[in-house]
Specification:
G_crystallin-like; four-stranded antiparallel β-sheet; Pentapeptide repeat-containing protein; 9 strands; about 10% helix; mainly beta
Length: about 120
């Protein structure tokens, strides 16, 4: 299963510093980062799929329940500074495959994450 090889580290500071949350599998939708006391504090992250580096999608949303402005990241990467999206993330979706733009717009318009993933609510 592709989601078991996904890794995500979230940091509250620039350049991978300060408070950290680690997700060791994909297929996770967090409706409200307040559940982790991490609402509106994300500043940097590291994302990868250990088996297939191109097969991973991270969607950051500015509002809870997968609403508001979005930033989409596909493939393995380290982002040391979210720039104009710094401290704005309130919900996220992480999957071990590449979601299309139309799938992402569907999530944003309905607030419903992809099937077969763990949904974390506050």
């Amino acid at each position: 299963m592709a989601n078991t090889d996904v890794r995500l580290q979230l940091f509250s500071g620039f350049n991978f510093t300060n408070r950290r949350i680690v997700l060791r599998r994909g297929g996770v939708a967090i409706r409200d980062l307040g559940a982790f006391r991490f609402d509106n504090v994300l500043s940097s992250f590291r994302l990868r799929n250990v088996s297939t580096t191109d097969s991973v999608t991270l969607i950051l949303f500015s509002r809870i329940n997968f609403q508001g402005s979005i930033r989409v990241f596909r493939g393995a990467q380290s982002v040391s500074n979210l720039g104009n999206f710094n401290n704005l993330t309130s919900s996220l979706i992480l999957v071990g495959r590449n979601l299309t733009n139309s799938q992402i717009l569907q999530i944003q318009s309905t607030g419903i994450p992809p099937r077969d993933i763990l949904v974390i609510r506050q």
